[in-house]
Amino acid sequence: FWPPGVTREDCLQLDVHVLILSLFSELKIDQKLNEGKTKQIFELVDQPGLVLVQSKDQITAGNAVRKDQMEGKAAIANKTTSCMFQLLQESGIKTAFVKQHSDTAFIAAHCEMIPIEWVCRRVATGSFLKRNPGVKEGYRFSPLKMEMFFKDDANNDPQWSEEQLLEAKLCVAGLTIGQCEVDIMSRSTVAIFEIVEKAWATQNCTLVDMKIEFGVSVKSGEIVLADVIDNDSWRLWPAGDRSQQKDKQVYRELKEVTPEAMQMVKRNFEWVSERVKLLLDPQASSRVVLLMGSISDVAHCEKIRKACASYGIPCVLRVTSAHKGPDETLRIKAEYEGDGVPTVFVAVAGRSNGLGPVMSGNTAYPVISCPPLTPDWGPQDVWSSLRMPSGLGCSTVLSPEACAQFAAQILGLRDHLVWCKLRASMLNTWVSLKLADKKFQACSL
């Protein structure tokens, strides 16, 4: 017996573990919505708006001109994709991914896919060299090089210009793909690449290029990152060395597919899937130490702490006065200098700000003054934070949220997870403005 809407042939292609789960667990699989070269997508009966994305033990190249079975690839690909989407979601990127369901499948929001493959390149190699004779392999793109390809297997996925995409007037899940949508996908592709690039750099791996796809959520109507991101999606060169490449290019370049060659390809895929888990781990602990001159400043400090939490940065709150107890202020400072944890000190002191200047003059760590200004004396009090003696590098930021962002920018130089959240926040701010402008223009018309 088979789940409703699923044929015997479908089940034979499903991983046995996933099949057992689908039959005997609460997850009920309905009809197959789509099937590609390396995955199948099934509707979920009891979870409207969600689908099961099931990977296959199949590897292909050249639009499936070369096609082979690779035992264990489904689990490897699913593990890689789940980790990558988790990294991007925790950073703040909107994706279709919901959760990993099994070794070989994950649950995602049901999307209608936009038939464009977005390619972002940091280093010139592969097909780019064939299409651009005279460019040497290894040429570094700064800014990143963006390309798009229309998904059409019969015509080998031709490259499209932005103008071609706009003139196609694609309508996906009721959303017409116009200039606003193209701009959002283009800007998102760059941000997603930079986040993944930053993460792989922690493992001394160069992200050479990457392809992604977007879909429109059937439920929300939003454009989200969809499909998969696995070892078929990029080129990875450990230590920037092409000869050590670990991605699918090794399979593409095989002169002959032998069992020994396929084992080498599988080892490369396993190498990537093991290291991709490490991208979710912070490379260095960090913190913000909030020094308030009075307990009355705690509300201001809580705003800073809340904003820091959005970047994953822990905060420590201390009460000390540089005017009334300078020795205690310096003792507290030394306490946090002594354990080697990257730290940003934030001085929160009203009236005459002695905390910021005293801290800045006695530590090599960064110090930010964020005074809680009041309407009555605020314009006068702020000068005690702005006018510093020579030799002090204490910055002043008036907004608690902006203060936290500045601290995150400092700590993000060492912690890629903080940096990734900052990068995603920049993208989301840009997208919200773009959508607001589109909505306003529609209302005006």
TrEMBL record:
In the C-terminal section; belongs to the AIR carboxylase family. Class II subfamily. Signal peptide: none annotated. InterPro entries: PurE_classII (IPR033626), PurE_dom (IPR000031), SAICAR_synt/ADE2_N (IPR028923), SAICAR_synthetase (IPR050089), SAICAR_synthetase_CS (IPR018236). Residues 286-433 form the PurE domain. Keywords: ATP-binding, Decarboxylase, Ligase, Lyase, Multifunctional enzyme, Nucleotide-binding, Purine biosynthesis. Pathway: Purine metabolism; IMP biosynthesis via de novo pathway; 5-amino-1-(5-phospho-D-ribosyl)imidazole-4-carboxylate from 5-amino-1-(5-phospho-D-ribosyl)imidazole (carboxylase route): step 1/1; Purine metabolism; IMP biosynthesis via de novo pathway; 5-amino-1-(5-phospho-D-ribosyl)imidazole-4-carboxamide from 5-amino-1-(5-phospho-D-ribosyl)imidazole-4-carboxylate: step 1/2. This is PurE domain-containing protein. Gene3D superfamilies: 3.40.50.1970, ATP-grasp fold, B domain, Phosphorylase Kinase, domain 1. One of its GO terms (biological process) is 'de novo' IMP biosynthetic process. PANTHER family: BIFUNCTIONAL PHOSPHORIBOSYLAMINOIMIDAZOLE CARBOXYLASE_PHOSPHORIBOSYLAMINOIMIDAZOLE SUCCINOCARBOXAMIDE SYNTHETASE (PTHR43599:SF11), MULTIFUNCTIONAL PROTEIN ADE2 (PTHR43599). GO terms for cellular component: cytosol. Homooctamer.
